[in-house]
Every structure is written in structure tokens, then in C-alpha cells.
Amino acid sequence: MKKQIKDLEICELDFLVAKAEELHPFIRNNKCFIKNEGYYDTYYSPTTNPSQAWPIIERDRISTIYIDYYTKWMAESEKHSGFGETSLESAMRAYVASKFGDEVDIDNLINK
User: Fold this and answer.
1) If you compute the radius of gyration of the chain from its CA atoms, what whole number of angstroms results?
2) Domain limits of the chain?
3) What's the topology of domain 2-110?
4) 66: which strand partners?
5) What interhelical angle do 87-100 and 10-20 show, nearest 10?
6) Which of 21, 73, 75, 108 has its CA 20 to 30 A from that of 49?
7) Is there a contact between 3 and 10 (Cβ–Cβ < 8 Å)?
8) Which alpha helices (DSSP H) does the chain contain, by range?
9) CA angle at 38 for the pair 42 and 30, rounded to the nearest 5°
10) Confidence (pLDDT) at 111
11) Percent of the chain residues past pLDDT 90, beyond the cut
């Protein structure tokens, strides 16, 4: 099923960020995890965890701004933008769009 980046659920967005970062993501109970070498998997949510998001934001020079009349955040990378309820969400939408385009076949990506 194809989805616009702007319409992705948070767990799908986190999954695609992990996929773009070449981690080994999977979704369980509507949350994204990455596989580790050890026993425990790691909860991965750059849309809510600044320590996971900021390295991506700084490396890719993604800027964010609060748009008052939309009551949303907007982020811009070199050629893509994203909107979200938080600055991290908007930045991750811009990042995913820069890696996969404005529309993704989410089922195909998740099941790979």
C-alpha cells in the first residue's frame, strides 16, 4: 500500500528512519525496534527521542521552524520538507522524504 510521507503513522515513520540509517528495524505493538547483537532489542523512536534524532538532523542539516498559523512544525532538508506536531516529527518526515521520496510502498518496505 502506497502512503504519502505526510500520512505515515509515527511507528512507520520511525521504521523508515531506521531503514534509511541502515539499521535492522521491525515493528512490534505499533512501536519500532532495532535488532541488536545482544539479547535485547532497542526501542527506536527518533520522532520522540532527541538523542536519536539530533545526529540525523545535524548531519543532514535539517532546519525546523514553528508555523503559528498552522500550529505545526515545518522542517526542510535540501530538497524536501515535512510537517509534524513536534520539531522532531517534522524533521524525520523531511529526512524520510529525502531518502525515499514523497510516497512509499510501506507494506513492501516493512515486509523486507
Assistant:
1) 13
2) 2-110
3) Bacillus phage protein (3.30.2120)
4) 73
5) 50
6) 108
7) no
8) 10-20, 50-59, 87-100, 106-110
9) 25
10) 66
11) 79
